Amino acid sequence: MARFREENGIDPAAYESAFAAVLRHRNEMRPGKVLHVETEFGAVVHYGKDKQKSKRLTARLDLVMKQAGKVYIIDHKFVYKHSADTMMRYNISGQFLMQTMMGQRIWKDRFGGILIHCLQCIPPFKDSTYPLEPAPAAMATFLPAARRALERMDLLAAENNPAAYRPAFNEQVCLSAYGPCEMYNHCQWLMK
Ligand code: SF4
Asked: How far, in Å, is the centroid of ligand 1 from the Cα of 186?
């Protein structure tokens, strides 16, 4: 975010104060009861032959609120521009397929779904909250796909040979909003 501010000539103090005002406004306007903030939730996934292996998948939920009798997971997303295209990327994102699965298991029929709290991080600063669209096909496929991925990770870990991993070589995977993959230098310089 700091680099973005520098590149766009945005004064940090003005940025902080405008953004704080947006967040304050949003917190005051949202009715309901806050249940959790930045709390880690987990779901155990059984996989392998006869489902004898298990792993606990975790998610740190930005915000969980009860509104009109339903429980919603609310995720804050910083975006450059509010648009339908921006929101579309989240509908079948594994992050939210998993959070939906967790929400359904934890809160059962009280679970209302995922809301994306979208914060535009360039002037004019603004925010909106959108419900995720249903994705029944992706939901049905998510768990089998996660099980296959876990099995493959176990196999690769047992080989202890990073070169056997199928490299992504993809700018959106190797370098995400959170920084470079921890294997970035290895893939750039050392891969054998
Ligand atoms: S940098 Fe990371 S994500 Fe990219 S190819 Fe290498 S291991 Fe895969």
From this structure: 8
